[in-house]
Amino acid sequence: MNIIIHGSLAFDRIMNFPGKFKENILPNKIHNLNVSFNIHQMEEMRGGTGGNIVYTLALLGEHPVLVSCIGKDGSPYIEFLRNHGVNTEHITTVENEVTAVCNIITDTDNNQITAFFVGAAAQPSKCDFSQWQPEETLVVFAPANNKTDSMHYIADCQRLGLRYIFDPGQTTYDYNGKELKEIIGGAWMLAVNDYELEVVLKKTGLSEQNLLERTEVLLVTLGKKGSVMKTRDGKIFDIPAFVQDKLVDPTGAGDAYRAGLIKGLALGKSLEECGKMGACAASYAIEKVGTQQHTFTLAEFDARYKAFFA
Fold first, then answer.
1. Phi, psi at residue 221, to the nearest 5°?
2. Using CA of residue 21, residue 22, residue 28, residue 30, what is the dihedral sign?
3. Backbone angles phi, psi at 242, to 5 degrees
4. What angle, 0 to 180 degrees and rounded to 10, lies between the N-to-C axes of helices 75-83 and 49-59?
5. What pLDDT sits at residue 256?
6. What is the model's pTM?
């Protein structure tokens, strides 16, 4: 299967706040917010939703195609992905911009505040989707921080009959209700977390049932509560999260989940099995600080999957 990922490339600055955001924010002053968090740890690493997903897919033995933009400082990142088996031919280098930067602060409750500098990600990428055949291709639209690019490629998928997953993530707010209806209407799957789902419902004025009249599968991730998949024909699959003592950093867990899910689809697994593979992949990501610091062999992945879900 051809796996095409359209998503961002960025450098992540991951910061840990040794307290709780809610103890530093006054609800009755939210209209006049002025807060500062003293950070005790910061690391800069490779990131971006597109980079994170293809990295874990490569660990799972796939050779995904990444459609994205990177800045003039991105050559080492491209080389890293290529060395791990990612097809980097459709990464556009923007010579007059630096690579996007994602600043992520995580508190002790694993709540996160993110500030994203778009940089090169705002520029158009170059890819002809007509080179792939519908019967052997899956396209994933992850947050790319370039709405024009995403809308263009999604229209191409609808015109060409390419199956795609719409996973708007943090960019959900960039789309209006009409646009979301049009995109979801052509998607095979809508993938969101529980917060993003509420945004989609509010913007579109639709119910969950209405969404499933437009897309075949609704995936909602629920953090430590796992995930749930609902299908147009009424099936519901509750997927538990891995219960473990090695939670170090939740950043990137959702992207790793997507990679495990996609690998399952490539193998022709059932939706429930795909969700479980996603949960297994996510369990590796949260054991490390950063979104591309985890590693495993296929044998290790298989053993962990069987130990938890057998």
1. -90, 145
2. positive
3. -65, 135
4. 20
5. 96
6. 0.90
Q: Give the mean model confidence (pLDDT) for residues 98-109.
A: 90
**At residue 245, does pLDDT exceed 70?**
no
| Closest of 258, 238, 48 to residue 266, by C-alpha | 258
- Specify the DSSP class assigned to residue 87: B
Which two tokens mark 297? 């062999």
Beta-bridge mates of residue 14: 43, 104
Quickly count: other Cβ atoms within 10 Å of residue 225's Cβ: 12
User: What is the length of the chain?
Assistant: 310
For 26, the token pair is 């006054």
Q: Taking each helix axis as running N to C, give the angle between helix 194-204 and helix 177-186, from 0 to 180 degrees, rounded to the nearest 10.
A: 110
- State the Cα–Cα distance between residues 90 and 194, nearest whole angstrom: 32
CA distance 296 to 287: 12
Query: Strands of 137-141's sheet, edge to edge?
Result: 91-94, 65-71, 2-6, 137-141, 163-166, 189-193, 217-221, 227-231, 236-239
Averaged confidence pLDDT in the chain = 93
Other beta carbons within 10 angstroms of residue 122's beta carbon come to 17
Residue 244's pLDDT is: 67
Which H/E stretch holds residue 69? strand 65-71
- Residue 304 CA to residue 170 CA, distance in Å, equals 30
- Which residue type, as a one-letter code, is found at position 275? G
Cβ-contact 105, 113 below 8 angstroms = yes
- Cα→Cα distances 224→16, 110, 176, 264, Å: 19, 10, 29, 21
Please list, in sequence order, all residues whose beta carbon lies within 8 angstroms of the beta carbon of residue 254, skipping any fewer than 6 positions away. 169, 193, 221, 282
Neighbours of 158 (CB within 10 A): 15
